[in-house]
Amino acid sequence: MPTKSVLELANWNEDQELTLLLSLLGKDVSHWQDKTAATQLREMDWVRFLRLTEHHRVVPTVYLQLKTLNHPCIPTELLRNLQAQYHRNTLRMLHLQAEAGRLTRLLIAHGIRVLMLKGPALAQQLYGDVSLRTSKDIDLLIAPDDMDEAEHWMKEAGYASKSGEVRVLGSWKWKDHHASYLHPQKRIEMELHWRLHPDGGGEPSFDELWSCRQMGKATGASRMVPLAPADNRTAMTSCMYTLGSEHQFLYLSAHGARHGWFRLRWLVDIDRLAVCAVDWEALLPMMRRYGGLPAGGQAWALAAALLGTPIPEPMRPVSATRQAHRLALSALAFMQASVPAPYPIAHGSGTGRLAPSELLHSRALAEQAEAAPWGGVASVGGATSKAGMLAIRGVASITEDASNDDYSPMSTATSCAPITPAVASSQVMTQNRAAHQPVSRTYLLSLKEPRHRLWYLISRLFPSTGDSTVFPLPRQLHFLYIPLRPFLWLKRRFSKH
Predict the structure, then answer these.
(1) Are strands 137-141 and 188-193 parallel, antiparallel or unpaired?
(2) Sheet holding 240-242, edge to edge
(3) Are 183 and 100 in contact (CB under 8 A)?
(4) Ranges of H-type helices in 395-440
(5) pLDDT of 60-74, one tens digit each?
(6) What is the pTM of this model?
(7) Torsion (CA) 133, 139, 140, 141 in degrees, nearest 10
(8) Taking the CB of the first residue and of the last residue of the chain, which one, N or C, has fewer CB atoms within 10 A?
(9) Is 138 helix (H, G, I), strand (E, B) or coil?
(10) Where are the alpha helices (DSSP H) in 140-228?
(11) pLDDT at 437
């Protein structure tokens, strides 16, 4: 089924701010050079456009594209705002890259193999420059058996557990997938993964991922490397390793699908990966083996429809199935439900500007005023003659929960019907207040193939780390969590309501 119908059914063409954003992310800006587009740019709600850019975490790409476009209808204040955020993100990414290198060297020096997920490593691998992607934390992947020792060295490095949960029996190794830590002085969050995905789904073993790893240095060079001898520590500690390109697609498509693709940044990653040196023929049997066909087909359908991503020939049958089309429509509904509504304009003054009481600091600009150990960023000052652009320096931001990539700002409704921008705008404030809620269980199950779906349902019967929070028990009595599981699950469910 043609991917264009995905957009037509979802009515995305009615949203001119989203249309501009997609054009910039897909690097298709030629349309905005003609006279008709100039009229559209003059009527653009630039405040809402800024909120979209911040929400989807694509400030670097949008800023550089708008700067290149250099259209007179683009407000100067908007470019100054994006420039300030771009510079701050560059400093933060460099800081995260340096800290990730320090932690990686620490673990490898003690015999723990480690792969870097997302963050600066992914920015370097896909974009060739850490400043061109945003990230909020550091993600490291290790073998499950190394978890206890790695956790010890993280504490030695100054990190403290954020959750404090006790791992119950051995089910945590396949039911959960990461633990979160925080460095209180550096204000850096770090996630230590022992699996790529939660819920015990199909995925390559760590040994398989390690054997196909890529080596990346601060310069951005990357190449395939053979498995180094265990005693060759000197060479290993000077490098940082990431997932191989084929495994990278498996991971990125499943991660984006699990969160309903509510941030376009994840689709931009797929778009950039599409032009990398990937063995698509070898990837296809991997997707079948690990149940990655639904998420992979959805990723290609969305990337092609929204960003114009060219689908590699071996992947086209995967993206053309009814299931891929249906899942793409579900994701579009989630995306639109998370879109920030236009900021309310003050009435009565006749200026079209926001009243002073309505000016709220955006998270991105408010962070500039905070003391940062790695340096500050020049503030954005001055006024603008553009109507409504006073708010650009103080536009309301998405809620804190929505800033966490591990949570999705969607309701738990199971409907996959297309949502128009007007409906999405009216719903977003309510949904942002419940941004911590995950996507619907029905949608998550639809991403799994039948054999993985059955295993997922069975896994619900086994204890989890959340059980120890609800009803703490000494380690020698952890076996009691097995018969207590139904009661603890019910207690958590009723506590939420």
Answers:
(1) parallel
(2) 160-161, 178-183, 188-193, 137-141, 115-117, 240-242, 214-216, 222-224
(3) no
(4) 400-403, 421-433
(5) 999 999 998 888 889
(6) 0.75
(7) -100
(8) C
(9) strand
(10) 147-156, 172-175, 206-211
(11) 41
